[in-house]
Design a protein that fits this description.
The protein is α+β, with helices and mostly antiparallel strands. The chain has one domain: Aspartate Aminotransferase, domain 1. The protein has six helices and eight strands. The strands form two sheets. It has a six-stranded antiparallel β-sheet, sandwiched between helices. The radius of gyration is 15 Å and the shape is globular. The relative contact order is 0.17. The N terminus is likely disordered.
Length: 149
């Protein structure tokens, strides 16, 4: 499991802090799923071909087929959206102040804090990139054939 370094704090999926955060989120799944940011995230994710939403570890996960490409989570009491991206892109984004390495992501996931002003166009671009990382060829073909908004 990966480790995230945020400020001077190391958070790992095996630390009590992470387990406490995830346990708290899991005990309140309805509270997480009904947030306005989750509703907007849901709308963006579910417009992509063959996507679905599942609740795992107490928070919503969005899948392309059987593979997760995005998730909404509460980490250290703060809301975030996680994206599955190529390692090079993860490395680029973690240098931005609003991003951090997702604690369980093994360098393949990056998360965006969403407790401030949210650039939804950027979120949509990241969701599309994340979707493309995990989607099957037929799903990508369907996406490429969708009319532009």
């Amino acid at each position: 499991m990966g480790t995230v370094v945020h400020s001077d704090t190391h958070i790992s999926a095996t630390t009590p802090y992470y387990r406490q955060t995830m346990t708290a989120a899991a005990s309140q799944p309805g509270r997480t799923a009904s947030r306005p940011v989750v509703e907007r995230l849901r709308a963006l994710c579910l417009k992509l071909p063959e996507t679905s939403e599942r609740s795992s570890w107490g928070h919503p996960n969005f899948r392309a087929g059987k593979k997760t490409f995005a998730a909404f989570e509460i980490i250290g009491g703060r809301p975030s959206i996680a994206f599955r991206l190529p390692p090079g892109e993860v490395d680029e984004l973690v240098n931005s102040k609003d991003f951090f390495v997702t604690p369980y992501g093994r360098g393949l996931w990056v998360s965006l804090w969403v407790d401030g002003k949210i650039d939804w166009k950027r979120v949509d671009r990241l969701l599309h990139r994340s979707y493309r990382v995990v989607a099957l060829k037929r799903m990508l073909a369907a996406l490429d054939n969708q009319p532009l908004p």
